[in-house]
Amino acid sequence: TNGFWGGIMWLLYQDTGEEKYKDIAIRCEEKLRECLNMFYGLHHDVGFMYMPTAVANYRITGNSESRRVAMHVANLLAGRFNPVGRFIRAWNDKVWDNDTDVRGWAIIDCMCNLCLLFWASEESGDPRFSHIAKMHADTVLQHYIRPDGSVIHIGEFDPETGAFLRSIGGQGYGVGSAWSRGQGWAIYGFTNAYAHTGKVEYLDAAKRVAHFCIANIPENGIVPVDFRQPTEPAWEDSCGACVIASGLIDLAKHVPELEKEMYLRAARKIIKTIGDTRTDWSRDCDAIVQNCTAAYHRTEHHFPMNYADYYFIEAIYKLLGMDINMW
User: Fold this and answer.
1) Closest to 74 in 3D by CA, of 66, 84, 82
2) How far apart are CA 277 and CA 236, in angstroms?
3) What angle is formed at CA 307 by the lines to CA 303 and CA 312, rounded to 5 degrees?
4) What is the pLDDT of residues 239-288, one digit of tens each?
5) Which 8-state DSSP code applies to residue 18?
6) Helix (H, G, I), strand (E, B) or coil at 126
7) How big, in percent rounded to 5, are the helix, strand and coil portions of the chain?
8) Burial 181-204 (b: 16+ CB within 10 A, else e)
9) Can you tell me whether residue 288 is helix, strand or coil?
């Protein structure tokens, strides 16, 4: 999640032009470069780490060293691709402090990391990165998006044969449920994939997931951790809410006028609800957005997440018509 702080700084710099935000973003990026030397801690989330830092720096300032780092990381992400199963492996040897074999695990979050591969192809002219991104997206389209528009979090494949084995509940309520932040990753990721490829199936997938979310957002605008969780305990995830809202705003750019307002209306409702009821603007709290939840079954709930702040700020800038391109 460390890339999102740098991303917030680049958003503020693009808005204000104040050098202090640029300086902090660059320091954040320099710290993240140490992760490349460590290597073992890196996994599929390198897109979240380096798109809003290294790639943003290169796009905004033309920094050649940031381009080098971003291309290096894109190669690392491409190296996680399983060609038999046509998926990008999520994590490394172990996960969640147990001995679960995760060699065949791919998760919905990775749809938002594909933008690093699309960028690498466009920047270098090498289509390999884009091919990998599209093959992963096609696999997600086949196995992760249910007919009703709900999304599974974790899919397990046989890493030797590529066969899809099962879905796993992950950070949502359970198998067959609809983890709200995962819904957001799907809307955002498939919209972005459509923007880079023009493949209509990706746009249709984003719309299907968006319709499920819009139909299930409670009247009060407070987004639950899982759209299929029990009534009690009523755990919330403001982070998932902000991801969904920002994804809906992007989706609205690619649909006819008659559809556009539906997505924007839902996004505005979410962001206004967060702004009015789930924010702390005081100097006593490091974060703006409150009441985030990492996973339904964890013991801790309703705390800040830096990527909730990122997507909240990003969504506001988008609604204001600011021309930003972070992904």
Assistant:
1) 66
2) 12
3) 95
4) 999 999 999 999 999 999 989 999 999 999 999 999 999 999 999 999 99
5) -
6) coil
7) 55, 10, 35
8) bbbbbbbbbbbbbbbbbebeebbe
9) coil
Instruction: Evaluate whether 193 touches 137 at the Cβ level (below 8 Å).
Output: yes
**Do residues 134 and 193 lie in contact, with contact meaning Cβ atoms separated by under 8 Å?**
yes
Report the distance separating Cα 188 and Cα 213, nearest Å.
13
Which run of H or of E encompasses 105?
A: strand 105-107
Which residues are tagged catalytic?
45, 109
**C-alpha to C-alpha distance for 167 and 93, rounded to whole angstroms:** 19
152: region left, alpha or beta (phi > 0 left; psi from -120 to 50 alpha): beta
Residue 96 carries which side chain, given as an amino acid letter?
Answer: W
Alpha carbons 293 and 300: distance in angstroms, whole number: 8
Distance CA 112, CA 246 (A): 12
CB 81 within 8 A of CB 128: no
Q: How is residue 8 written in tokens?
A: 């917030």
Q: Please tell me the total number of residues recorded for the chain in this structure.
A: 327
Whole-model pTM? 0.97
Cβ(21)–Cβ(13) below 8 Å? yes
